[in-house]
Amino acid sequence: MAFLIGVDIGTSGTKTVLFDEKGNAVASDLQEYFMYQPKTGWAEQDPEDWWRATYVSINNVILKSGVGVSEIKGIGLSGQMHGAVLLDKDYNVLRKAIIWCDQRSAKECMQITQLVGQKRLIEITANPALTGFTASKIMWVKNNEPAIYEKVCKILLPKDYIRFRLTGEFATEVSDASGMQLMDIGKRQWSDEILGKLDIDKSFLGSMHESQEVTGKVHQNAAKITGLKEGTPVVGGAGDQAAGAVGNGIVKSGVVSSTIGTSGVVFAYADQVSIDPKGRVHTFCHAVPGTWHIMGVTQAAGLSLKWFRDNFCIEEMRTAQLMDVDPYVLMDKEAEKVQAGCSGLMYLPYLMGERTPHLDPNARGVFFGLSAKHQKQDMLRAIMEGVVYSLKDCLEIIKGMGVDVGEVRASGGGGKSKLWRQMQADAFGDNINTIQSAEGPALGVAILAGIGAGVYDSVVQACDEVIKVESTQQPDDNMHAIYTPYYRLYQQLYTSLKSDFETLANIE
Asked: What percentage of the chain has pLDDT greater than the value 90?
């Protein structure tokens, strides 16, 4: 039997999973690392932490599984999108990577829009200039750290830096590269026009591939440190959202995913390039050759709950450790005790600014309606509901673009919570399905690796064979009626606070 490895370089940690060719997880390992926030709205990570987490986790899954390395036929890489890894001529990292949720580059977004033209920028890249995208981060370094920029020889996305460490190749693939805002999305290639107007040397960028193509092979040094066999193929892989979509079977019309990870994403498949003229959702190349996807993003979905856990749920974390359970299991039980709507307490999940539907780096997290009646468990449920409202924002825009939504599949860490899934079903008014595997991005890129290695014929064929719906949660009409007026108020709150967010940013 053939085995495949999926490596997911996430924001909180890197998870490596070894699968058999039926899509069954044989062994997995997670290695966590730190996110640096030197200023409000800034977010950075050390690429060396990603590499260390990758080789340690690969070693661990090989040891745990007992599978012979010659039976591992391919490796797929998934990763957090939009980050900027800058290398010098000796291929050393020049500074910590500025990652996806960093909000420092608002001025650079204005600069990009002026240099390219708002309409032309959307025509080529399918999106307006955003602080989250890589282009604005590159321009920020150019404007604010010119001594560093002068030394730049290569610019890589997070997973593509890991590819370099594994294979020595400078390469990327269409789904992740779409989020750099340096691509012609319709043509699925680097845009010479964008690069020229931003004065970014094309040689800085890796070669472009489709997600299932072999981009290199594990070299001798990487084989020694990872435990892999030298020469093992490494395919293009995918950005975390496209990878998770493949791992969730979002590879044909009618099936949409709702993912709660550090960020929250609603993801839909598209046969053709479809662009929201208001720029509220993103259009990128899909990991399925010749197709695209539309996705709405809330910056701080699972991050909001993690922030609350780390700062206000010390007792739950200690109890969970004694019980040998996940703290989120206990937090779910507390939230279940609170009635829907939390007696008027609402939460806006803008801890890291926002992307969909509000392109606003100045937005901040808010508890609204707090009274002396409310307790910690009310705040906990309000956070979960606020994230669901944000995901509903994304879903409603996608539906408004004419996308067929026949089925919504939940995934990500938040997708493991039955309570959070039911909240989505009730607020969306749609069935929420889960599949038999919870490995999402790692499974998706393992499938892509299997295609590159000849184990499968195509993405669609592989997903039909490997992915099966395991459970369905139906919406409760009574609960939907409760959530609907709260959702309308949630939508109004941002408009009411928008100018105040800007005032606060100016004070800071």
From this structure: 90
